[in-house]
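note to self — DONT lose this again. spent like an hour looking for the file last time. sequence + predicted structure for the chain T wanted, 219 res
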Amino acid sequence: MDTPFCAKCGRETQELSEGGLCEQCQPPRRRHVPQVIRVAQCPHCGYFKLQGKWQEIESFSQLLSLLLSRYFTDDYYAVFDDNPDQQTIAVTAYYADDSVEITIRIQSQPCNWCSRRHGGYYTTVIQLRTDTEVKSCEQPYRELMSYLKGNATRKRFVSHTQQHKNGYDIYVSSLQYAQQTLAAFARQYPIERKQSKSLLSHKEGKPIYRHTISVRLQP
């Protein structure tokens, strides 16, 4: 019995597609690609939301690769106008002897952490105080804010501050962020530090606390 052969390259093989092609000659397989792919981007930190998770994306090429990998199971290449200011980007994806036109629409949506920051979210209050008037606290306050800014990340931030008669209240996103910053600050300024907490709520059966760190500048 003669061995079947590929209708395109002529290679003999027992494994042929319904069109009579061997595996190497079959066109790349792809799932249905929608004409429009929408993706959310945070206007504050620039992260993109992919499959329910916010991620940092270094370039549109990387974003496009992550988006299209869901639909193409074989090699392809894409052509697009790489303009980072565009919110609607036309893409042509080529695979084998075929191509598909896709529109990528980038929609503005604040991520969870930026929503918290701009919404005044905090877990810890740093109460910076002096025994005299607030004027004597201004320089240490600026130095402390500089330390906080230097240690800031997307999830570590100062949400707001309040001035008082003899000092400042600084509202920050996490206890660890406050503690690490104050450890560095204490190497420059002698301080007396006390910490307390109060029960705010419960989440999934676990207690959620709000922390207060009292920082008193020493003479």
